[in-house]
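ok so for the tutorial part 2 we go from a plain amino acid sequence to predicted structure tokens. step 1 is just haveing the sequence, like this:
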Amino acid sequence: MGIDKSNVSFVIHYNMPKSLEAYYQEAGRAGRDGAPADCILLYGPRDIRTALYFLENGGENESLTPEQREEVARQDQRRLNAMIDYCKTTRCYRGHILDYFGQDHGAGCGNCGNCLGQFTQKDVTIPAQMALSCVKRVRDKLGYPVGAGLLTDVLRGSRGQRVLALRLNEVSTYGLMSREKKETVRALLDHLEEEGYLKTDPDHGGVTLTPAASEVLFHGRSVVMATRETAQPKTEIPRVRLPAGDIPAEGFYDQLFQALKDTRNRLAQQAGVPAYIVFSNATLADMAVRLPRTQAELLEVSGVGQQKAARYGEAFLSAIRDFWEEHG
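step 2 — the prediction. this is what the tokens look like for a chain of 328 residues:
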């Protein structure tokens, strides 16, 4: 909170916020200058347990009636569910947020991780049956549930100290997924919890079956899991068409961009204002690409209006001319 900077390019959430309102406000710190920015949210089912714990143990407002407290709890749960859905969705992230806030939008933004990613729907019914059966076998043998980490070790046939000490290498599901990577088995367990076939005790971390698990184990319900194959976006930097023979040297645009930033910083210091008040990084980048020579051409640059062109235009046009004469 309280960050008044325009040039934030990364916002990374180490855990899931409790609501989309909170996430939107926090992620919105990035990209305020109009330049591309990355918002990365690290998420796992454990975040749900943590959020539920704080909702249930956050204290009650004694000034509210019991009915009002129940309504507050319902609204908190609704907001948390919307945040969980956002973390799990395979559709456009921007569209998901706009739906939540009741705004219209297109089919996809073409820019978020889901729009740029590729998803393969994979039938994981047999591995799911192995995992669910393992949860039951381990519970039956020990008399109490264990966490997802230990279940993963059992399914992969680990010879770890705890597996052997508890003699979990003796259960029939031991090593059924020995050829799978640890990350793959853990992702499957997480998916089964997200789909409502498993639940984790928020206090002790033990994983148990839900009534829905029997549909997969005994009644033929199939389980499908979306596997993400992220495609790296291809970034193309636009270039202006210059007169014949005028081919910029390598690094020309980056050097000009820095020269324009130096000009902006000087003007900002003289005016006693933050640099982005003069022009944003995105505007300077477009200016470096377009190479305006006149006020009319300067007005075609993204983010340049009549007032700023009149106030700062000549300084930037002069900087471009000087740079061109020196490097052109």
